[in-house]
């Protein structure tokens, strides 16, 4: 009830004159390849011991995940990431 009373006190506020927040996000396109690459390389430097994957109750650190793929931060490139943006209802 307080919210309704507060809304009625605001002059010239109707359906066509309101502030709204668009919560519909496209997570697949939230960052580009370069941004993701920088994020991963920074994480490899600062947090190599951080557990990032758990399978069958056993955690794997960021460094271990990269070791299983035979990769280092130096090996990473935009081409290695091979990202593709999804368009449409994805």
Q: Strand arrangement, largest sheet?
A: 1-2
Q: Uncertain spans, ≥5 residues at pLDDT below 50? A: none
Can you count the helices?
Answer: 4
Identify the CATH architecture of the domain at 26-81.
Irregular
Percent range for helical residues? Answer: 25-40%
CATH class of the domain at 26-81: Few Secondary Structures
Radius of gyration: 22 Å
- Number of extended strands: 2
Tell me the β content.
Answer: 5-15%
**Based on CA inertia axes, which overall geometry fits?**
elongated
Distance linking N and C termini: 39 Å
Which topology of the domain at 26-81 does CATH recognise?
Answer: Invariant Chain, Chain I
Helix/strand/pairing class, anyone? alpha+beta
Helix-strand pattern, N to C?
A: HHEEHH
Q: Which whole number gives the mean pLDDT? A: 82
Please describe the biggest sheet, giving its number of strands, its sense, and whether it closes into a barrel: 2 strands, antiparallel
How is this structure best described in words?
The model has no long low-confidence stretch (mean pLDDT 82). The chain starts with a helix and ends in a 9-residue tail after the last helix. Strand 1 (51-55) and strand 2 (58-61) form a beta hairpin. With 90 residues, it is α+β, with helices and mostly antiparallel strands. It has a domain at 26-81: Irregular (Invariant Chain, Chain I), CATH 4.10.800. The chain has helices spanning 2-9, 33-46, 62-68, 78-81, and strands at residues 51-55, 58-61. It is built from four helices and two strands, in the order ααββαα. Helices cover 37% and strands 10% of the residues. The protein has a two-stranded antiparallel sheet. The longest helix has 14 residues, at 33-46.
């Amino acid at each position: 009830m307080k919210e309704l009373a507060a809304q009625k006190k605001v002059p010239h506020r109707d359906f066509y004159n309101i502030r709204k927040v668009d919560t519909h996000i496209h997570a697949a396109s939230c960052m580009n390849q370069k941004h993701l690459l920088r994020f991963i390389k920074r994480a490899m430097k600062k947090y190599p011991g951080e557990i990032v994957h758990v399978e069958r109750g056993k955690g794997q650190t960021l460094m271990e995940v990269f070791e299983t793929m035979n990769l280092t931060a130096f090996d990473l490139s935009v081409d290695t990431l091979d990202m593709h943006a999804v368009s449409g209802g994805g």
